[in-house]
Amino acid sequence: AEVLIPPAAKGMGGAVKKAEDILATLGEKGYMLQQFNNPDNPKIHRETTGPELWEQTDGKIDILVGGIGTGGTLTGATQFLKPKNPNLVVVAVEPAESPVLSGGKPGPHKIQGIGAGFVPGNADTSLLDEVVQVTSEEAIEMARELAKKEGIFCGISSGAAVCASLKVAARPENKGKRMVTIIPSFGERYLSTALFQSIWDEAAKMKAEEM
What we know:
With 211 residues, the chain is of the alpha/beta class. It is built from six helices and four strands, in the order H-H-E-H-E-E-H-H-E-H.
């Protein structure tokens, strides 16, 4: 297989555009699954994630927080949960450096998995009650803290989700409410990223001791 790497400056939107251009040249021989606009994406979360959250919380969930990558998880889960609890508050998380959901301009950031630089077709923004912005630095630091203090080895987007959740939970009006936060990523996928760069640097400076 041939792997094509579009310019990093063009972000996820550039990658999708390149894939669409290739598809156009293939005719009937090509097929693009298109995770950002595939209705099966939110459908599976409507049928599985939403019901699981409802069951695990005994139907007592006040706030749902999650990052917007393709938009499928938060959209599908909310489509199941909102009819059961119309008072459910749904909070989306996006990079502060690329606040597209908040009406801002796309930009480079380090929170892999969310903040594609455009509003995905799978993301039903009408279901969102609020969008919380988190900086890359906040997300990375939180992911590290989760590993060190909670034993949760997760990725940068998970750090962003938890960081946003803490901001929302700290509000006086949310005292005593039950919040569910989606942690979608495993830490081992981020070993070569900025998340663990400081550990790599520290290890590189280590020297063998004389025996």
